[in-house]
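Troubleshooting: if your tokenizer reports a length mismatch, compare your output against this known-good record of 253 residues.
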Amino acid sequence: MTMQRMIFCLLAVLGVGLLLTMTPFSHAQILFEDDFEGGELDTSKWNPKAEWQIIEPDGGPQSLGNGILDFNAGEANISLKNDFKDFVYEADFRAMNDGKITGFVFRAQDTANNFYMHQISADGSGHTPNNMRWHWKVGGGWNVEPIPFLNGEKVLPEVWYHARFVVEEFTFQSYVLETAEFEKNPRTAKMRQIGDWTDKGENFREGAIGFRASGGEHMQFDNVFVYEIGSDPYAVESAGKLAVTWGRLKATQ
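Known-good structure output:
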């Protein structure tokens, strides 16, 4: 190889390296997050609902840290941010034996009368077990359409799962994976789709997110994360106990 050829190859390699160095990573457009590590409800993010308690987890995945959200009554409670339109809504959840059901709130206009509320009904629940129970409450009146989990999937009570809801226009897609499996590498974890539903009435185009339980429906949540569709939140450094998962992820890349 001539000297000129060697110099050309070296410059080509250096150029590629410089290009890779300068290429920006795709950062997520994070809209909301809470890991409940403060010991009490963050009033800059949520209403201070009396029924919502921050407690220490009794074991479980490392990513739960020192605080989780626990409640079994109180109906809906929602975020102060109330302009979520199209988004991905993720959270760790556990349906406790008292009720064996969870309640995720979407695009809420208020806490009493107007919102979507979709329940993941676990195995053994008294409300259509192993069903996605798609709810919409309009003017104070409930509507519900229970649909069995896709592909015969099951969700067990007393087990921590990671949920992902993709909300676009008036269509909702729901996914789950056991949290311990998800946190090994959230960027490559294969989420299992358990439901798909479209609101033909097109009731609410934007609003707040949150959770809901009626009396006796005991449930727990953690690591709430809302971000724009198409972005990658796991490529971003995050604060609090979420950094445990993201830090481990970065170490494996």
